[in-house]
Amino acid sequence: MNFQPLVPELSVSHFEKSLSFYTEVLKFRVEFQRPEHHFAFLSYQGCQLMIAQENPAWKTGKLEYPYGRGINLAMLVDTLDVLLQSLQEHHYPLFAEPAEHWYRQGQILLGRREFLVMDPDGYLLRFAQSLGERPL
C-alpha cells in the first residue's frame, strides 16, 4: 500500500460507530488497525483517512458536534452510485443531494457530479466523480 502525502486523521467520539459507518455504509477498507488504541487506517479507491478515538493529548479545543467545522474532505471516486445506494439502504441522510458542478481551472472547466454527507461526528465528506473537462 502506498501512503498518500496527506492523510487526514479524524478524532471520533465513538470509534466502533465511526468504523462501522466508514466500512459498512461507505465501503472503506481497513488497511490496518490498532484495536488497543481505537485506531484504523482506511481507504476507498485511493482515498485515505484515519480515524481514532478522541485523544486528550492531541485535543486543541472543545470537541462538539459537528466536528470539523469549516472543512470538507473532498474525495474523487470512480462512481457515486455504489455509495449513494449504500447510504440509501442504510437510511443514512445526505447533507447535499447529488448535483453537477463545473469548476474553472485556468482556461478549462472540470466537471464533477458530487454529493455531501456528514459522518456520525459531523465531519463533512464530499464525494465526487469526474464528468470530464471542457473549454471556458
Structure keywords:
single chain, 136 residues, mainly beta, 2,3-Dihydroxybiphenyl 1,2-Dioxygenase, domain 1, four-stranded mixed beta sheet, globular
Report the total helices: 2
- Enumerate the spans where pLDDT stays under 50 for 5 or more consecutive residues: none
The biggest beta sheet is recorded as: 4 strands, mixed
| CATH superfamily caption | 2,3-Dihydroxybiphenyl 1,2-Dioxygenase, domain 1
Q: What is the count of structural domains? A: 1
Give the overall shape, derived from the CA principal axes: globular
Q: Return the CATH architecture.
A: Roll
Strand content: 35-45%
Judged by helices, strands and strand pairing, the structural class is mainly beta
Q: What order do the strands of the largest sheet run in, or round the barrel if closed?
A: 1-4-3-2
| Arithmetic mean pLDDT | 96
Can you tell me the CATH class? Alpha Beta
Structure description:
This protein has 136 residues and is mainly beta. The protein has one domain (9-54, 71-135): 2,3-Dihydroxybiphenyl 1,2-Dioxygenase, domain 1. It has helices at residues 15-25, 81-89, and strands at 9-12, 29-34, 39-44, 47-53, 72-76, 96-105, 108-118, 124-135. A four-stranded mixed sheet has the order 1-4-3-2, with helices on one face. Strands 5-8-7-6 form a four-stranded mixed sheet, with no helix packed on it. Strand 3 (39-44) and strand 4 (47-53) form a beta hairpin. The model has no long low-confidence stretch (mean pLDDT 96).
